[in-house]
Structures are given as structure tokens and as C-alpha cells.
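Researcher: I'd like a structural prediction for the single chain below. Treat it as a standalone chain; there are no partners to consider.
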Amino acid sequence: MRTRIASTAVAAALTPLALALSVPAAHAAPAAAPYDFNGDGRTDLVIGAPAATVSGQARAGAVSVVYGSTSGPKTSTRTLLTQNTAGMPGTAEADDAFGSALASADLNTDGYADLLVGTPGEDGSDSNDGTVTIVWGSASGLSGARTLFSFFSTDYDRYGRTLAAGDFDGDGNVDVAVGSTGPTTLSLVKGPITKTSAHNGGSGSQNDGWSSSNGVTHLSSGDVAGDGRPRVVLHGRTAHDGAAATSLADMKIGNYADWLQKLPAGFVSVVGDIDNDGHADIVVGNDREVSADPGGALGGKVSVVYGGPEGPEPDRAPLVLTQDSAGVPGASEKGDRFGSGVSLGDINGDGYADLAIGSAGENSSAGAVTVLYGSASGLTTKGATSYTQNTAGVPGGSEAGDRFGERVTLTDHTGDGRADLSVSAPGENAGDGAVWSLRGTATGPATSGSTSFGPGATGISTAGTPGYGTALNS
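Model: Treating it as a single chain, here is the predicted structure.
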């Protein structure tokens, strides 16, 4: 039974909805790293194409899973997922947008990471209810699926537009956070979640200060306080003027009066330990001009909020970077969209998380990616590098509208302990989209031996404009 808790004058932004919780089940095995679906110690690459045509259904959506190897993502070992794939719930229908959001965790603790796929356009009790599909990992890769619980279908739309997974309430089980629009904008589905389990309860919240029509537009998570329990970064728009709004949420706090901390406004974020102090740091990207968002900047900007024992470190001012910052390649120009995508990972294996920043609007939206390095004192611009399709060794050539850098991810596809840089350009080839992967080395991403592939290489139709790479590993 659902209970609505009324907001009060001291409540922070969100009003909770709650369900009774059952006793969690015992863990079965050590959890696998996210996105390692076959348990081989290499992260696999997931590419969402939510506008892909499936069996003649425009914008039904598809997802490619390209498994890691000693040489990086290998398209000869892949899994294609649509709602028409055998064993998948539902049916591919026009405008479902399967693959709009991705997340991964070992939900059932069997030693293999599982994949969560958002389908915000799925029709249910009304149009655009949305749904989330869990696809299970195994020794042979992804196989079998079920639908994630949806408690409040009459109170939201576009459920699954953004996703995050982690033990947010600290009970030892992996939970799933789901963004949506409407009266309920954020849902927490309690773990454990297994192939056959009934639901273990959950909660939802409605945002009193943010636009319900925009809802929660992006989620990320990480252990900012260093206590072993991840917090969640929420992105949305304010109700009064549509400006970007970003907050850090502690999902364990039940009274919802002090569970949010305000962060620099932006549209995307990533969490990781840049200075290796045991507290994850938060990077927020805001790729808008000031004319489009009051928190933006000429050409876009990125803000780094350093973590501490209580969350964001109060005695350490956020680091704000643009392409005009000393040491950052390039120059801030209108429409560059610096901060369109952000990702953290240890490229050179020195123990500090490094930062990849997409600038999808650079040079008439040809796009570019900037890499900055972590250190004991935090993020540094020393040795910063920039990559485009015109960089020697990178396949292809920069063309207006490619949007190279719309999404970026830093993760170890080879199993050598260094994060590899993967970049998407959803506008490549008139909207087909494509993905690039550059191997991490002791001196940074290597263009030598870098690879690129598009939807056709992984079984996705190029009918219409699939937008391959609209979503990547989060």
C-alpha cells in the first residue's frame, strides 16, 4: 500500500512516496564489476540507439553490447538487444525508444554484471508510461530478461528515461534509481532483485521545485562520502524558469528533509575519485550558453566538486573549467558544447581518475574530446590533450554535424588495469551514428590501433536516423 507524505516548509525539494519493505535475501556470490557481463575481468561496451528502426517500427530502439577483449571492444563478439529479441519482455513498437538509458550492476550477485535498459516511450496504462528491462549476465554473456518493478505507473510518465544502480540505502543489496516525468520524478526500487524475486518495496519522490514535465533528466552515482554507500546525483529543470538544477541525494535518509545538497547546475555528471583520497568527486557538465541556461557559459563548462566525509567538501571550492581555462586545449566559442559528455576513469594506471570531456558542438558540431588528468591535488590541466576525427590515427574525418563527443566513457575493455576511451558521435553519417575506442596507456589514450564502428557492424538497421551512441556505459 502506498502512502503519500505531505511536504512541509522545511522539506527539501522532494516529497516522498513509500512502500513497505520486506526482509532482504542473503547474498549468493561476490558481486561483479558493472558492465562485465561474462565475468572475464574486462568491461563490455554498451551502445544505445533509441531511434533505431526494428522490424519496420521507427524509433523502436536497439542496444548493441560489444564484449571486451585484450585488444578492446570486439564487434565479432556481440549481443544485439531489442524488444523483439527472444526472451525479452514486450514488443518493439514505434517510438518506444528502447536504449535511451543504460545502467549496470550485479543485481543478483551471481558474479556477472547485469544490464538495465530504459524504454521511456513504452505505452502501458497510458501513452509513454515507460519501462525498464533487466538483462542478465552469465558466463556466455547476456541472456534472459525481466521487467524492473514499476510501483507508481499512474503517477509518472517516461519511466526509465535515466537510470543508476547501487546499494543506495546501505542494506547490502543493490537498488535501482529510475528517473521519470510527472508527479513522481524519481523512484527507488529496493534490492535484492533476482530473476524470480517478488518486489522488495521501494519509494518515490515528487519534486516541488523542479519542472514535472522535464522530470529527472540524468542520474549518476558514487561513494562521495567514502563510507561504502553511493549517493545519487540528480539533474532536472527548475519549474519557474526551466534552468538546469543539480542535487546530491542521500537515499538512506527517510525523512526527506535534509537528504539533498545543491550542486553546480548542469545536464550530465559522473562520479569518481580524482585525487585518490577515498572520497569520490563529482563532475558536472553544462554545455549550454548563458542565453540558454543561466548556469551555463560561453562554449559550455565543467564543474568539479571534491568529495569529503560529509559529501561535497565544504572547505574546497569547486573547480570550474572552460576551454579558456589555462592548459585546456582550444578556446571557448559559442556553440562548442564543452561538457556535453563527461566520464572518469584511470587511463594511465597511476591510481587517480582522469576526466574525458565531450565538446559535441565544436567546429560546427563536428565535435571533439578533451582529456585531463587526476593527481593527489585534484584535477590538473598539465598534459591535457584533445582528440577529434582529424587527429592522426583516429579513424574517419571530422564533418559538420557528427557530434563526436556527445557521449564519452572511460572503462577498461582490455583488462590491463587502464581505462580505455570510448567516444560516440550520434550524428555520424547523417544520423547513423558511430563509436570510437582508443586504448589507455601509461601516457594517455593511444590513437594507434584505435577502432571505430557503426550500427551496421553490430546488427542495427541504418533505416531512418538510429543515433547509434546516443547512450553509452554510464
